[in-house]
Write a structure and sequence with these properties.
The protein has 125 residues and is an alpha+beta fold. It has four helices and five strands. It has a five-stranded antiparallel beta sheet. Helix 1 crosses helix 2.
Length: 125
């Protein structure tokens, strides 16, 4: 079975064209090598899929005949992604909340209060 079809059948990607595009962009790897969408998948292979800034590691258990229901996905793949990958996204989320790009415009009221509180704190010492 083709890798793009496998990823679509096991519900890693919503459509097969999205799976094909991900393969072409190098977001899908087997044994650390980027692969083409037409690469054949066999049992017990480890597939690394980069999706939403997380490197998902999927072990192929079996090959489905066609797209399977969400409840049956566990029969065909096993997610062996380490927990550290999910912790990285938590850190990214917090970093984005507090990061403000230069040149965005005037500070908001909250930004202004934070600046005033910081200035008051530094002058007290």
């Amino acid at each position: 079975m083709r890798i793009d079809k496998y990823l679509w059948c096991t519900r890693v990607f919503k459509t097969r064209s999205i799976a094909t595009t991900a393969c072409k962009k190098g977001q899908v790897k087997i044994d650390g090598k980027s692969i083409k969408p037409s690469k054949e998948v066999f049992g017990n292979e480890l597939i690394v899929v980069r999706k939403n800034q997380i490197n998902y590691q999927i072990k192929v258990l079996n090959l489905p005949e066609s797209r399977v229901g969400a409840k049956l996905v566990d029969q065909y793949r096993k997610d062996v992604t380490p927990k550290e990958e999910f912790e990285k996204t938590e850190l990214l989320k917090y970093a984005k909340d507090y990061y403000r790009k230069k040149g965005i415009g005037r500070p908001t009221k909250k930004d202004r209060r934070d600046i005033d509180n910081y200035q008051d704190y530094t002058t007290e010492e």
